[in-house]
Amino acid sequence: MKIARIIVDVPSSQTNRLFDYKVPERLEDVVQIGMRVIIPFGPRKIMGFVLELTSDSNVDKLKNIQDVMDLTPVLTPELVEVGKWIAETTLCFYVSAFQAMLPQVLKAKYEKELWLLAEPEELTPSLEQLFGGRGVIPYEELKEHNLSYSAIQKGIQEGLMEVHYNVNSKETKKKETYITPGVPIEQLEEMYVDIPSQAKKQKQIISYFLEKEREEVRQKDLLGTLATTRASLKPLLDKGLLKEVHKEVYRDPYQNREYEPTTPFALTDEQSAAISPIHKSISTKQHEPFLLHGVTGSGKTEIYLQSIQHVLNNGREAIVLVPEIALTPQMVERFKGRFGSRVAVLHSALSAGEKYDEWRKVQRKEVQVVVGARSAIFAPFENIGIIIIDEEHESSYKQEDYPRYHARDVAIRRGEYHQCPIVLGSATPTLESFARAKKGVYTLLSLHKRMNEASMPEVERVDMREELHAGNRSMFSRSLYDKMQERLQKGEQTVLFLNRRGYSTFVMCRDCGHVMECPHCDIALTYHRRNERLKCHYCSYEEGMPDKCPSCESDSIRFFGTGTQKVEESLQHMLPEARIIRMDVDTTRRKGAHERLLTKFGNQEADILLGTQMIAKGLDFPNVTLVGVLAADSLLHLPDFRSSEKTFQLLTQVSGRAGRHKLPGEVVVQSYTPEHYSIDLASQYDYESFFQKEMNMRKMFQYPPYYFLTLLTVSHPNHLYTMDVTQKMSQFLREQLSERSVILGPTPSPLTRIKDRYRYQVMIKYRNEPMLIKVMNRLFQLYEDDVQNKDLQVTIDFQPYQMM
DNA sequence: AGCACGCCGACT
DNA sequence: GTCGGCGTGCTC
Q: Which phi and psi (to 5°) does residue A403 adopt?
């Protein structure tokens, strides 16, 4: 007897284990590991993932698998193992890990229906009204009718009706109809003669196939070329001369685009030296992690491309991860240009259907290269030859919601399985990675020089306090203003960077200092100019703009801070002749808007590109010779131990946008604390000194990479209860963990209240804590009951990036 | 997570 | 009595 061991689609601690099911005879050759199946579970039917196939079970009364949902497994055996590992190391449910690895559309959808078994006359009047002459009704309709639950229950007991559970998958495959001869060509010729002469169009269609012995034609094309309709095709199909074939076509968002084919560039000496260890690792099938540290514009991408070429020549596959924000058409073009249709692209701007189609291309091995954001690390390849993570320092590689995995860790795990190299590339590696490279855990490859012998642009730091003392109250320093004007005269372009986070537009009373805050989240509300309303970014609470201060009744309540819109207005006022493009969430919301604006800027239809984080990366415009950073220190003062590192990374990235080609570039960094080491060293492009300095700070304050962090967050609507539970948990951790570990807290979370829930946290700092996962599991068990029945929420984040 | 079962108070 | 509230325990 064939038994399948299954993870059921019920994310709860009690069901987070394998359940055994019999494989019915008709499915014996169909069911495979990694497949989604439909199974009866209690009174209902749900989806489950087959993880194991065996022949015996400890459970005596087994139910049958009802049906399969896939014909090809959606998870390869390797990915099943990866999913289990994610669940066990990030403490999430198995089913949640598997869901996170698959396209959204493969998530099961459930619906409940009520089926009428008896004749309508046998029903009570209220039930008869409920069915209204129909045989099946959606279960939800019960709520609309004023029927008691027991009346339904009674009806079911009496056998008048029945509850049906349906399991569906949302995936749809786009199909296209093709027409092909239904009989051999000689026979078709004979039958052609028999077509009555008045059926002119039918004869035309058949001769179309006979002429060039055509095998298969798209129906759309056929009817188009012959200027006819399906009316004349139909009889031929009915008589069997021709037949229809339905073929799956992919929704290809890039299909109407042409990519300029590119050929490999000759590598510089530095590049050659960096690429040869990677090639060696590919050829010898040795797993090895590399850290490729190369200044902006040093040609890291070319190294990726040539390494991938080497992998493809070996008949293997490649995964390239790029931060979401850098996954621009320019970036895609570079890969499609080199590898054409062998590339699939996976990122969040695609529709669910498009994402599924790209994923299917990978599943069917129709492509060998995947370029995508974080979740592309789960591409179902089975013969991976290289995994590349570009801009390795980007925090978006860590998923900030459940399951909290880091793509870099998954990459290394997959690299070990496939025995292939992992390349982490960055101009500003995370301290963690650079420290590992120094220790020899990663192999360090360095590119110090820019290509085209371009030099890094000169950086001028402007002290905005001095500007104010000199009577300049505008948001542009005199120096930046002069330089922008100069660019306008010379017909060169400027990129202005504004860090939005530091510029949030909050509303404050100038008389008493009262700040408008969200009543549920304890954070400042953001002023939205368009409809004059105040919104909370965390819970979407909103209210109108007050005309009097609610605290002191003064009418000098105003909004403060600056958004890109405000900067644009001021800029237009100062430089009326400048053509400005603003890029922020508002102007790029519509599909394709991002690309259109960049193309416009690339075609020099604008002089100044003003934007937020989204323009900090990957842009490469030859005519840009000036980059302005409006508030370099706005990131520095966030409550985050990585703020210096983030500032250094951001300034380096932004500076890299200028003078990448023939024209030399210049950078102006405006700041209220220009002497801070991260601003100072970024302006000198001195990564090494920054690394040393920041490492000292981290050592002193016991932060990563010297210590590991784990963040435990507890939330509940009741304030006292939350504090109490968090207190007990921290006590438990102090008792269970080693004495050398530091347990901070409980402290209120930086966002103390979100959606009417109080949040407290405990931070654990440790160097070596092999029992941590076990201890955490035990902690979860202790509070399982409260989580299930008392609305308690407990989240655990190993190696958190965001402390909130 | 659902869903059934069972115990309890509130009502026709 | 019976209806419906909620706590408890189970799902191969």
A: -80, 140
Q: How far is the CA of A150 from the C1' of C4 (A)?
A: 9
Tens of pLDDT, residues A493-520: 999 988 765 345 678 777 766 778 877 6
pLDDT of res. A171: 77
Q: Which helix (H) or strand (E) holds A667?
A: strand A666-671
**CA of A105 vs C1' of C7, distance in Å?**
36
Q: What is the mean pLDDT of residues A72-82?
A: 97
Report residues 2-21 of A contacting strand C, contact meaning Cβ closer than 7 Å. 10, 12, 14-15, 19-21
Strand C within 7 A of A153 CB:
no
Return chain A residues 163..202 having CB < 7 Å to nucleic acid strand B: 165
- Ranges assigned E (strand) in A602-653: 608-611, 624-629
**Higher per-residue confidence, A159 vs A108:** A108
Pairing of strands A458-463, A533-535: unpaired
d(CA A223, CA A237): 14
CA A516 to chain centre: 33
Residue at token pair 């990585």: A642
State the virtual CA torsion across A485, A488, A489, A492 in degrees, nearest 10. 130
Strands (E), A553-611: 557-559, 580-583, 608-611
**Residue A285, pLDDT score:** 96
Query: Does A725 or A561 have the greater pLDDT score?
Result: A725
Nucleotide nearest to A64 (CA to C1'): C12
Chain centroid, CA A119 distance in Å: 52
- Edge to edge, what strands does the sheet with A580-583 contain? A458-463, A666-671, A624-629, A493-497, A608-611, A580-583
Give me the torsion for CA of A214, A216, A222, A223, rounded to 10°: 130
DSSP characters over A419-430: T-EEEEEESS--
Q: Which nucleotides of C are covered by protein (CB under 7 A)?
A: 2-4, 7-8, 10-12
At A560, phi and psi to the nearest 5? Answer: -120, 170
- Chain A window 743-802, residues with Cβ within 7 A of nucleic strand C: 789
CA separation, residue A676 to residues A434, A485, A530 (Å): 22, 29, 37
Q: How far apart are the first and last CA of chain A?
A: 51
Instruction: List the A51 CA – B1 C1' distance (angstroms).
Output: 21
**pLDDT tens for residues A32-66?**
999 999 999 999 999 999 999 999 999 988 999 99
A788 beta carbon < 7 A from strand B?
Answer: yes
Which residues in window 7-36 of A are less than 7 A from strand B by Cβ? 10-12, 14-15
Backbone angles phi, psi at A221, to 5 degrees: -70, -40
Residues A435-471 pLDDT 10s: 999 999 999 999 998 887 777 888 999 988 888 788 8
Domains of chain A: 3-105 (3.40.1440.60), 110-167 (no CATH), 175-248 (no CATH), 269-447 (3.40.50.300), 458-503+561-697 (3.40.50.300), 708-798 (3.30.70.260)
Residue type at position A274: A
A43 touches strand B (CB under 7 A): yes
Report if CB A66 to strand C is under 7 Å.
no
Q: Find which nucleotide's C1' atom is closest to A151's CA.
A: C3
Name the token pair of A392. 């390795």
Q: What is the pLDDT of residues A313-333, one digit of tens each?
A: 999 999 999 998 777 777 888
Scanning every strand, the nucleotide with its C1' closest to A790's CA turns out to be: C7
By C1' distance from the Cα of A12, the closest nucleotide is B1
Residues whose CB is less than 8 angstroms from the CB of residue A350 and which lie 6 or more positions away in sequence, other chains included: A253, A358
User: Which residue, counting CA atoms, is nearest to the C1' of nucleotide C7?
Assistant: A789
Average predicted confidence (pLDDT) for chain A? 87
